[in-house]
Design a protein that fits this description.
CATH class of the largest domain: Alpha Beta
Radius of gyration: 24 Å
Mean pLDDT: 94
Number of helices: 18
Bound molecules: oxalic acid, manganese (II) ion
Largest sheet: 10 strands, mixed
Length: 600
């Protein structure tokens, strides 16, 4: 059994191996008296304890062990069928006044939220085991690194947090006797969607999440702390928490880093783990991963450059469509010590999801535990099935991925999933225009969140679901960050998903995206040509290397086509967000819109 103590014999000294932090102790005492757990386990992050958690999970039916010859250290978790994605309608920013949350977030008055959730948390852990998870976001020694303590009654959460963050004693050491930690309280409750609340209290550095065990709702280090809470910390302290991957590109004997923001399930993990085609590899190109989902960015006062870290230590990636062709690095990453969620189970103890192999298996057990055959009319894996794997498994992990000094960012790329209208790539005229481009980002919704998929919605900086405070203040913060920078990253927009009128993708995507990245990096170094368009700077056909692929110049031209009529409609669709922000729209945004209208 893992090291544990019970409220009755509660010995913080023994459990925390030394002087317990008084602030932590008094918060834990409050939490335990409210939730009333039967047993308490302190998560140390040590491999032996992680194994014990997984073994207990197998006994409890939380985990199904997979074929240990094929997939050593791997387990399958099936979530409750009503609890398979983030639930934005149940996610709240709580503060005394609605203005704090702004027009795009659900808001609840803090007092009301604490009252409501206290009622739900009361005795919610009676008879259950609860886990105290001290964790760090960011590597030890980085100025941005922050401590969180999550208390949860979910074994799945405890085991997953040790993969996704740096769990255990180092977090308590960094905390020392300080009060500066994010108080994360989570209970799966009875998993009733009617009693599901993910409440953030940025002014109190507190998150209370009740009624869901799904990653984005329950692994509180991820979206809740690393984006919503950290976003607010960044606003106050002059840095940024963004829904961005960071990737290193070795090219022409140099190394550059880019950060890219795409909405959920639009290929961030694929882009962060991209393998260049042979012709690029022969020329020495290599792409390495710093992070696949979240970036914390700050300006280095020594050289005025933007630097970034990945605050996480693992990946929570989308599975459908992932295979040895589309993302071999992801496949190697999840080859061992991985938790799979909501995939199909094969008779030999392997997992399967749509798109893993060309031919579906003849039989499987689907993600809900029912027998499945290819013609049964149901999906075998949930469209939002996921893998949770430590980033150290990634064969393409960047050498600086854990460096507390972070990496310098040369380019910021925004992208969405758009089957029409939006070209493959263009460059913003300057930082302010780039912020406008990011702020007006539109993308078709995916299975990563509950609700209708495939409808275009405005998703500023791919942050709409992850904004911890008001969007107007967020955009103003972006504009202000420019003033701190001596040399700012160039800003680009990409769309890998444009289709022709037969519904076929115009651009092959995946590894071939390196060709677009090449133009982007050359632009950052003043080495590539471009022409001015309505939208920004665009490559001519001859500026993109098409050698060795089957993309016809005419298809590339179609992928790049800017149709001013379609753009007028796009502009009108964007008004919805502008109207919501009405009186609080930053003036830079108004100027940029006027300029675009005059260009149109
Ligand atoms: C994620 C998401 O899980 O964006 O990364 O939904
Ligand atoms: Mn994400």
């Amino acid at each position: 059994m893992p090291e544990h103590f019970t409220p009755a014999n509660m010995s913080f000294e023994a459990a925390f191996r030394g002087e317990p932090n008084q602030h932590l102790q008094s918060w834990l005492a409050d939490v335990f008296s409210l939730c009333d757990p039967e047993r308490i386990i302190l998560c140390t992050g040590e491999p032996a304890q992680q194994q014990e958690l997984l073994d207990c999970g197998v006994l409890d039916g939380v985990f199904i062990p997979l074929n240990q010859q094929k997939l050593p250290g791997c387990y399958l978790h099936r979530s409750h069928p009503n609890d398979v994605a983030r639930t934005e309608q149940c996610t709240y920013i709580c503060a005394p006044h609605k203005d704090f949350a702004g027009p795009t977030n659900n808001w609840m008055a803090s007092r009301q939220a604490y009252g409501l959730l206290r009622g739900l948390f009361a005795h919610s852990m009676r008879g259950r085991t609860c886990y105290i998870i001290p964790f760090l976001l960011g590597p030890v020694g980085c100025p941005l690194t922050r401590v969180g303590i999550e208390v949860t009654d979910s074994l799945y959460v405890a085991a997953s947090m040790s993969i996704m963050t740096r769990v255990g004693l180092p977090a308590l050491e960094v905390l020392g006797d300080s009060d500066d930690f994010t108080r994360c309280l989570h209970s799966i409750g009875d998993c009733d969607p009617q009693r599901r609340y993910i409440c953030h209290f940025p002014l109190d550095n507190t998150i209370w999440s009740f009624g869901s065990g799904y990653g984005g709702n329950a692994l509180l280090g991820k979206k809740c702390m690393a984006l919503r809470m950290a976003g607010y910390m960044g606003l106050q302290q002059g840095w940024m928490a963004e829904h961005m991957l960071i990737t290193g590109v070795q090219h022409n004997e140099q190394k550059s880093y880019v950060a890219a923001a795409f909405p959920s399930a639009c290929g961030k993990t694929n882009f962060a783990m991209l393998i260049p085609p042979e012709s690029y590899k022969r020329r020495g190109w290599r792409v390495t991963t710093v992070g696949d989902d979240i970036a914390w960015l700050w300006v280095d006062h020594r050289d005025g450059r933007l630097r970034g870290i990945n605050p996480e230590a693992g990946y929570f990636g989308v599975l459908p469509g992932t295979n040895w062709q589309t993302n071999p690095n992801a496949m190697s990453t999840m080859a061992h010590d991985t938790i799979f969620t909501n995939t199909a189970l094969l008779p030999d103890g392997d997992v399967w999801w749509e798109g893993k192999t060309l031919e579906p298996p003849p039989h499987a057990i689907d993600w809900t535990g029912q027998p499945w055959t290819p013609d049964c009319g149901r999906k075998a894996a949930h469209p939002n099935s996921r893998f949770t794997a430590p980033m150290k498994n990634n064969p393409a992990l960047d050498e600086a991925a854990m460096d507390p000094a972070g990496v310098p960012i040369s380019a910021i790329i925004f992208g969405g999933r758009r089957s029409s209208t939006i070209p493959l790539v263009y460059q913003a005229f300057n930082w302010i225009h780039g912020v406008y481009v990011g702020a007006t980002l539109g993308s078709e919704t995916t299975a990563a969140s509950t609700g209708k998929t495939g409808v275009v919605r405005r998703d500023p900086m791919a942050m709409l679901p992850f904004m911890g405070y008001s969007i107007s203040d967020y955009l103003i913060h972006w504009f202000r960050m420019r003033r701190k920078m001596a040399d700012c990253p160039r800003i680009f927009h990409v769309n890998w998903f444009r289709k022709n009128n037969r519904g076929e993708y115009l651009w092959p995507g995946y590894g071939e995206n390196i060709r677009i990245l090449e133009w982007i990096l050359n632009r950052c170094q003043g080495k590539a040509s471009a022409v001015e368009s309505l939208l920004g700077w665009m490559p001519r056909i001859q500026d993109i290397n098409l050698s060795g692929i089957e993309v016809k110049p005419a298809d590339l031209a179609e992928a790049q086509r800017v149709d001013s009529e379609a753009f007028k409609a796009e502009l009108l669709a964007g008004e919805e967000l502008f109207l919501k922000m009405a009186g609080e729209l930053p003036k830079e945004m108004i100027f940029q819109r006027e300029l675009l209208i005059s260009r149109l």
